[in-house]
């Protein structure tokens, strides 16, 4: 994903859109419920919960790296 695509990705999630994507041959899903945003690895249904999409992008990690550090290797 390019930086421009990553910015659109963040904007979409901020308005409640949900996306699936692949990173290092693993499928992930970002979803929402009222008052929560989730980052889920499909294999094993491993989920991390965040209060907001901003918190997801500030604190959410995959393999110990923030999404902002790995976006160029994310495929969606």
Task: Kindly describe this structure.
By secondary structure, this protein is α+β, with helices and mostly antiparallel strands. The chain has one domain. About 30% of the residues lie in helices and about 35% in strands. Strands 1-2-3-4 form a four-stranded antiparallel sheet, with helices on one face. The mean pLDDT is about 95.
Distance separating the two termini: 7 Å
Tally of helical runs:
3
> Beta fraction of the residues?
35-45%
The figure for the number of domains is: 1
Structural class: alpha+beta
Rg of Cα set:
11 Å
Main sheet summary: 4 strands, antiparallel
Helix percentage range: 25-40%
**Average pLDDT taken over every residue:** 96
The number of distinct β-strands equals 6
Estimate the global geometry from the Cα principal axes: globular
Low-pLDDT ranges: none
């Amino acid at each position: 994903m390019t930086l421009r695509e990553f910015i659109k990705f963040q904007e979409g999630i901020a308005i409640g859109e949900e996306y699936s994507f692949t990173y290092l041959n693993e499928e992930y899903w970002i979803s929402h419920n009222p008052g929560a945003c989730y980052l889920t690895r499909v294999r094993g249904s491993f989920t991390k919960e965040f209060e907001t999409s901003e918190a997801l992008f500030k604190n959410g990690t995959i393999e110990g790296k923030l999404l902002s550090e790995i976006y160029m290797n994310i495929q969606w």
